[in-house]
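Subgroup meeting minutes
Present: P.N., E.W., G.H.
Scribe: E.W.

1. P.N. recapped why we're keeping a running log of single-chain structure predictions: easier to compare across weeks, and new members can see raw inputs and outputs side by side.
2. G.H. added today's entry (152 aa).
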Amino acid sequence: MAPRIDIINGPNLNLLGQREPDIYGSETLASIEAACRALADRVGLDLHFFQSNHEGALVDRIQAARGDGKAPGAAGIVINPAAYTHSSVAILDALAAFDGPVIELHLSNVHRREAFRHHSYISARADAVIAGCGAQGYELALWRMARLLGRA
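Output recorded in log:
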């Protein structure tokens, strides 16, 4: 059975391709998901893709990644928490309860942007952080996850 990887996307990422393409690029979340699925198939990963604009829904999804005792959980999480990166202790706490690897992902280089974007609560739990690579960052995160799980 292929290890399950949950890719979790935070607020406003449903507007990719429409919202500030000079910062976030012109690719849509659907096209990013398609590229990730193609890569996941090549390296033998079972991909679950999720997006929500609601903090509680993101926490629920992270908690679900732990499994429920009946069905196995995710082997790893790739998360683009978007604006919640800089404000959500709840997401950090949910990730801290997850046992597998976590990769934090940002389309833009947050360190070249406004000062409030330089701090990440999520980084305290992340095994790796990818920022500033645009949509390609998702594929880089999957390659890294595959390596962490011994699949590449």
